[in-house]
Amino acid sequence: MRAYNETLALRVAERLMHIQDVEEKEMFSGLVFMVNGKMCLGVSKNSMMVRLDPNTLENLSDKDGWQQMVMGGRPMKGYISVSEDVLGRNDELDFWVNLALAFNPFAKASKKK
Fold this sequence. Notes:
Blueprint: H1 6-16, E1 22-27, E2 30-35, E3 38-43, E4 47-51, E5 66-71, E6 74-83, H2 90-103
Antiparallel strand pairs: 1-2, 2-3, 3-4, 4-6, 5-6
Protein name: TfoX/Sxy family protein
Pfam families: TfoX_N (PF04993)
Organism: Pedobacter riviphilus
């Protein structure tokens, strides 16, 4: 059994099929979708990580089921976690996936080791 929600991961993968440069990597106890060499979306056991423009957070106040991601007690700028509870509807999943894809061209790639 995988540590991440395989059904949600398949639904996300379906939405990324039309994109040329998508890579799936198992990391952070989940499955991360790299788009154009940059972390874009991730699926864990009960949520989806979304990388987005940090300036759009105030525009999401009317959306339910998301929270700022925190690592080591510090907020991760530009990363949120969306509960799988709100991702059951295709229109909700599409909203979050499209938000991440819209930011991807502007996102910085991590440094190669």
